[in-house]
Amino acid sequence: MYGGEPNLNNIADPEYIAKFDYQFLDAIRDVERDMLTGGKTLLKDVLNFFIDYEIKNDSESSLEEKSAKLEEVSKSFSTKADVVISELQKRMEVGKNQILSYAKSTGAAFDGALPNFDGKLSDIDMFSSLRLIVEHTTGITIPASRNGLG
């Protein structure tokens, strides 16, 4: 690798080149696939970093105080999410019984074991319900998945 005036043929010292820190970000060609879907997504990582940012970035609180505040906020969210899950289970009760009747009649339920539904909802889980949009000052919003590479 050369640097400087081309006619001088100055060779770059590998020791100095190794000191450069760089990050490579590939082009996002499919927004939904690359950022929004799957278990480990770019958008989920970004949102997880910035959720409760005001607490994480509070320079006047100690690490222990920040941790306690984050735990308190997380527990509060979890309590509210449990109410949503409970409501969903109530709405599914009759349908669930119908589904489970099929399990009983086909032999999928045996030896006292029955399929059922259970769940918890965390703030991280809720990220998947968010849609990334591009919002213009005119008020028009476009889902990022509809935005081209241009």
Give me the strand/helix succession. EEHHHHHHEE
**Could you give the count of β-strands?**
4
The parts where pLDDT drops under 50 for at least 5 residues are: none
Domain count, please report it. 1
Helix content: 40-55%
The percentage of residues in β strands lies in 5-15%
DSSP helix count? Answer: 6
Spatial strand order of the main sheet: 1-2
Structure description:
The chain is mainly alpha-helical. The protein has one domain. The protein is built from 6 helices and 4 strands, in the order ββααααααββ. The strands form 2 sheets. It has a two-stranded antiparallel sheet with strand order 1-2. A two-stranded antiparallel ribbon has the order 3-4. A hairpin with a 5-residue loop joins β3 and β4. The longest helix has 44 residues. The two termini are 33 Å apart.
Q: Summary?
A:
This protein is mainly α. It has helices at 14-17, 31-36, 42-50, 53-56, 63-106, 123-126, and strands at residues 2-3, 10-11, 133-135, 141-143. It has 6 helices and 4 strands; from the N terminus they run ββααααααββ.
Which SSEs are present, and which pair or pack?
Layout: E1 2-3, E2 10-11, H1 14-17, H2 31-36, H3 42-50, H4 53-56, H5 63-106, H6 123-126, E3 133-135, E4 141-143
Antiparallel strand pairs: 1-2, 3-4
